[in-house]
Write a structure and sequence with these properties.
heterodimer, A: alpha/beta, Rossmann fold, four-stranded parallel sheet, B: TIM Barrel, nine-stranded parallel sheet, 11 helices, 9 strands
């Protein structure tokens, strides 16, 4: 399996939507074939349409507030003593996370196709919050499906969604987390696809949703490349890009522009959620060798039992708490373009403490997973290595969990 | 020789009524009970759809989800489901059984192994909800080779061009999804409109047996007397849930319900 050069990865799938011949595809009920095909035709046309791109860039710039900052973490670099540690502060984006890019693009598409309602799933609540923001901006009605367990643990984002006028629909089936929210959202779309647009909150789901999301979040690496050239005059000779991976939307977007570089120059490191150190449950299908299965319309590595029932996951970060993983990442793993590892709940919390101690930066629990591995590895790397962590979410939403786990002083200034 | 599924349609046609297809989830609420339910309702139903429960179903409504989660919670495994069918076939060999489920269950078992096991235990057909055309081309051919009916699904969103291609690639039976809905939704389209679509399919493919499912209940079933077959699923699953909640015997209650359904179309 090989990543082709000169062709965007989102366009490297085959006729049936499979990357590397086996990841992705369209395992959907017959009813969804037509709306998916319509969306494919629309997206393939618009992604090369100058006016559409201008419109998108305009919203990205003036509403989302691109580019987000690229900063050196001087104190952390000194403390760790190894590679230079930098961060792309994607949480600067309007709404506080990378999910806004995909949400905005989906709303632009929905608007153009004349749909009045847009629905979406959410785990940490970011995808839902951003979709509700974008829907409000573009005058669309919005429904967000969210696991009942996640509603409890991510209250700040739930409140934000409601404030934006979205219906937040609690999902009580199964493990009551993201996996069930996505299922319920797809079911709702099956029943309402004639009037309603669906936004899948990550680079998961039927192939077209993987492509739209990856295309949207790639804004992150586009900016980063410019920022690197501004800062260093070139793309550094030794560059390592660390990103947490749940569904995989922020990491794919963080890496995409650098895909064609040799991995010896630009290495991609994806950090999955290892779950509590003492628990066997995790949300790290790539790290722990899960088998290929079908989940939410796509073939991917997924936590499952021998019968093919999807297994429950466990992670402190709702945004990574997903048993599957984007087909794009399965492809990058098997093509050996990216390397994947996991951090436990405890390691993520510890990284959060270190980062907030040394820097004026508050990564949410999701990027804290990436910080954990980056800090560990940076120690052993030379000073001319540039380590960049995508701080793709803000810890404001995790206040409740952080207060419970670490005490009040860690959340005070939020 | 006609296969058992086509034979069941032929028999119903002789009696000038549509075939009655029921859907129950294997292992709901236990292995033993679901077998008993199958045995009881097979006195009135012509073809039995046996749901293979999956825990991330993307096309099932609340009633069937409840049944499926209950069955999984009570420990049903795929091999138990094959056993239920082979036990059932010991007493009712001629009654056709169709599995309905999601592709991951087949994928994990291995397509070839799965089909071998289907053949051995007496499964006559397969409905794979999330393996649409043309993705199902290779698998449906494998099914045909093993004399197992691969049942293609059609929906109101299926374009005419697709409809022609799908029916061409279908075996003896096709399944028309009555409306845009998950299973068990309220019938939100008029029966007239559903029948118009049904007739369109029959015109293109007159020889294939076409059944209508989704939203069919005791109240709506008699609208479809002049079709090849009708599927009732969610209402039966709901009845099992209701019986369990009221500490009544689901076997008796479900059997009564199916007998009533049969009377309504006879």
């Amino acid at each position: 399996m090989k990543v082709k050069k000169g062709i965007p990865v989102i366009d490297q799938g085959d006729r049936l939507g499979f990357w590397g011949g086996k990841f992705g595809g369209n395992f959907v009920p017959e009813t969804l074939k037509k709306p998916i095909e319509d969306l494919e035709i629309q997206f393939n046309k618009l992604k090369n349409d100058k006016n559409f791109l201008k419109e998108r860039d305009n919203y990205f710039k003036n509403w989302i507030g691109t580019p987000t900052r690229f900063i050196k973490l001087n104190n952390l670099t000194k403390h760790v003593g190894g590679a230079q540690i930098w961060s792309k502060v994607v949480s600067d984006a309007n709404g506080g996370a990378h999910k806004i890019y995909n949400a905005t693009v989906h709303c632009l598409l929905a608007k153009r196709s004349g749909k009045k309602v847009i629905i979406g799933d959410t785990g940490a609540g970011y995808a839902g919050k951003m979709l509700s923001m974008a829907a409000k901006k573009f005058g669309l009605k919005c429904k967000i499906f969210m696991g009942a367990k996640d509603i409890k643990r991510q209250q700040p984002n739930v409140k934000a969604m409601k404030k934006n006028g979205a219906d937040v629909i609690p999902v009580y089936s199964g493990s009551q987390t993201l996996v069930d929210a996505v299922s319920e959202c797809m079911r709702y779309w099956v029943a309402n696809c004639d009037t309603t647009a669906m936004c899948v909150g990550s680079t998961v789901g039927p192939a077209i949703f993987v492509r739209i999301c990856g295309w949207s979040t790639s804004q992150i690496s586009k900016e980063l490349k410019d920022q690197l050239i501004n800062e260093f005059g070139e793309v550094p000779k030794k560059l390592k890009l660390y990103n947490c991976v749940g569904g995989g939307s922020s990491s794919f977007g963080f890496w995409n522009e650098f895909m064609d570089y040799d991995k010896k120059q630009v290495e991609f490191i994806g950090v999955e959620a290892g779950g509590p150190a003492k628990s066997k449950k995790h949300a790290a299908p790539l790290t722990y060798g899960s088998k290929i299965g079908i989940l939410h319309g796509a073939a991917q590595y997924v936590n499952q039992n021998s019968d093919g029932q999807i297994e429950e996951t466990e992670s402190i970060s709702a945004g990574l708490d997903y048993p599957g993983i984007s087909p794009l990442h399965c492809f990058l793993k098997d093509a050996k373009r990216a390397r994947y590892t996991a951090a436990s709940d405890e390691e993520a919390l510890k990284a959060y403490q270190i980062v907030t101690k040394y820097e004026n930066l508050r990564p949410s629990l999701e990027p804290s997973h990436a910080f954990s591995v980056a800090i560990k590895e940076a120690k052993k790397l030379s000073k001319n290595t540039i380590v960049i962590i995508n701080s793709c979410g803000d810890a404001y939403k995790d206040r409740g969990i952080l207060e419970k786990k670490l005490g009040k002083k860690y959340v005070k200034s939020n | 020789m006609l296969n058992p599924i086509s034979l069941a349609f032929k028999r119903a046609k002789k009696e000038k009524r549509p075939a009655l297809l029921t859907y129950t989830v294997a292992g709901d609420s236990s292995k033993k009970q679901s077998l008993k339910i199958l045995e009881a309702i097979s006195n009135y139903a012509d073809i039995l759809e046996v749901g293979v429960p999956h825990n991330t179903p993307v096309a099932d409504g609340g009633q069937i989800q409840t049944s499926a989660y209950r069955a999984i919670k009570n420990g049903i495994k795929i091999n138990d489901i094959f056993k239920i069918v082979s036990d059932f076939k010991k007493s009712k060999n001629s009654k056709p059984v169709i599995f309905m489920g999601y592709y991951n269950m087949i994928f994990q078992y291995g397509e070839n192994n799965f089909l071998k096991k289907c053949k051995k235990s007496g499964v006559n057909g397969l409905i794979v909800v999330d393996l649409p055309w043309p993705e199902n081309k290779i698998f449906s051919k494998k099914c045909k080779k093993n004399s197992i009916n691969f049942i293609q699904l059609l929906s109101p969103t299926t374009s005419n061009k697709r409809l022609k291609s799908i029916t061409k690639d279908s075996h003896d039976m096709i399944y028309y999804i009555s409306m845009l809905s998950t299973t068990g939704g309220k019938l939100k389209v008029s029966p007239k409109k559903i029948l118009a679509n049904y007739n369109k399919i029959k015109k293109i493919s007159p020889k294939k047996n076409c059944v209508i499912g989704f939203g069919i209940t005791e109240k709506t079933i008699s609208n479809f007397k002049n079709t090849d077959g009708i599927v009732v699923g969610s209402q039966i699953c709901k009845e099992i849930t209701r019986s369990l909640n009221n500490r009544q015997n689901p076997v008796i209650n479900v059997s009564k319900m199916v007998s009533k359904l049969r009377k309504k179309i006879s």
